[in-house]
Amino acid sequence: MVNPFSSNAVIYAIGAPGGPIKVGMSRDPRLRAADLTTAPGISLLYSSAPILRADAYQVERIAHHLLASHRVQGEWFSASIEVIKAAIGNAITQYAETGKLPLAEKNKDMVSLGLTLPKGTLHAIDVWRGKQRPILNRSEAIRFVVSAAIDMNERRKAKAD
């Protein structure tokens, strides 16, 4: 059983043979794999050694950057498990050596913010994102839904004019 108050996390790879592989960060990668098992054959393929959760966020971002040419969508990549393991290992090494993200990963068009949502809204987002293929992470799902709502509002305004 994983301690829910642990300050450690791992970088994981979850997927099915021959399918895209999700690279993410979690305190409990087996539970995370269980969350994603709506498709047959999806399982935990790899899990790094535990690292501090604050560092794991940065390592995950570096791994995603290193795997960018294999990106299918969001955190899902079309690459062999060997390539994924190597990218995660390289990301851990790079972060350990520099403590910094690669310059290309620092997206000046993005702003990080804390967000508080009613439980019902978060549940609705989780249900919706669970139906997407590949499954979006929460941040991607919220960005998508917000962008779609803004686009719909703009089209509504244009139609009214």
Query: Secondary-structure element sequence?
Result: EEHEEHEEHHH
Q: How many domains make up the 3D coordinates?
A: 2
Principal-axis shape? globular
Question: Can you give the helix content as a percent range?
Answer: 40-55%
Low-confidence stretches: 1-5, 101-106
Count of helical regions = 5
User: How would you characterize the largest beta sheet?
Assistant: 6 strands, antiparallel
Report what the structure shows:
This protein folds into 2 domains: 8-105; 119-160. The protein has helices at 29-35, 53-66, 81-98, 119-130, 138-160; strands spanning 8-15, 21-26, 43-47, 51-52, 71-73, 76-77. Residues 1-5 and 101-106 have low confidence and may be disordered. By secondary structure, it is an alpha+beta fold. Strands 1, 2, 3, 4, 5 and 6 form a 6-stranded antiparallel beta sheet that branches. Helix 2 (53-66) packs across helix 3 and helix 4 crosses helix 5 (138-160).
Sum this structure up briefly.
The chain is α+β, with helices and mostly antiparallel strands and 161 residues long. The protein is 46% helix and 16% strand. It has helices spanning 29-35, 53-66, 81-98, 119-130, 138-160; strands spanning 8-15, 21-26, 43-47, 51-52, 71-73, 76-77.
